């Protein structure tokens, strides 16, 4: 069982940056692949970024690649999403999730544990 709590969301102007954190508690955090997803009002949840259990492999959505960086610190049970050059289209609730199955995955059905989400709002 893994519990996840996101933080770091907020209101930022277009072009600005935010760093989201996801704190994990429970056993064996370091064996899970971790993902970030987001959901905007009226839209389906979409994949943003994922990182393998040891941090050696990362994967990004087309919209995130080149602007966002996912990282993790297994000693502190933390996963981060650094978001740069933010756009109004990035406005959404951002969720972190843990997968015991995949090296990393953009499929949300591969993730068993989810946080409650943190709101990111980008103003134009």
Helix content: under 10%
Distance between the first and last residues' Cα: 40 Å
Hey, roughly how much beta strand do the residues contain?
over 45%
β-strand number: 11
Secondary structure class reads mainly beta
* SSE pattern, N- to C-terminal: EEEEEEEEEEE
Backbone shape: globular
Quaternary status: single chain
Low-confidence stretches: none
Rg: 13 Å
Mean pLDDT: 95
The largest pleated sheet is described as: 7 strands, mixed
Counted by DSSP, the helix tally is 0
Characterise this structure.
The chain is an all-beta fold and 124 residues long. Helices cover 0% and strands 51% of the residues. It contains no helices and 11 strands. Strands 2, 4, 5, 6, 9, 10 and 11 form a 7-stranded mixed sheet that branches. The chain has a 4-stranded antiparallel sheet with strand order 1-3-8-7, with no helix packed on it. The termini are far apart. 35% of the residues are buried.
Would you kindly provide a brief summary of this structure?
This protein is mainly β and 124 residues long. It contains no helices and eleven strands.
List strands and helices in order, with pairings:
Blueprint: E1 2-7, E2 10-13, E3 18-26, E4 33-39, E5 46-51, E6 58-60, E7 68-73, E8 78-83, E9 92-99, E10 113-114, E11 118-123
Parallel strand pairs: 2-11
Antiparallel strand pairs: 1-3, 3-8, 4-5, 4-9, 5-6, 7-8, 9-10, 9-11
């Amino acid at each position: 069982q893994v519990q996840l709590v996101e933080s770091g969301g907020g209101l930022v102007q277009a072009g600005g940056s935010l760093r989201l954190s996801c704190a994990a508690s429970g056993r064996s955090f370091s064996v899970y692949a971790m993902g970030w997803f987001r959901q905007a009002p009226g839209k389906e949840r979409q994949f943003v970024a994922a990182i393998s259990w040891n941090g050696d492999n990362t994967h990004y959505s087309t919209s995130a690649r080149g602007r966002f960086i996912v990282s993790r610190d297994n000693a502190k049970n933390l996963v981060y999403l650094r978001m740069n050059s933010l756009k109004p289209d990035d406005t959404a609730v951002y969720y972190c999730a843990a997968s015991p199955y995949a090296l990393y995955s953009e499929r949300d059905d591969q993730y068993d544990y989810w946080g409650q989400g943190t709101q990111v709002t980008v103003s134009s």
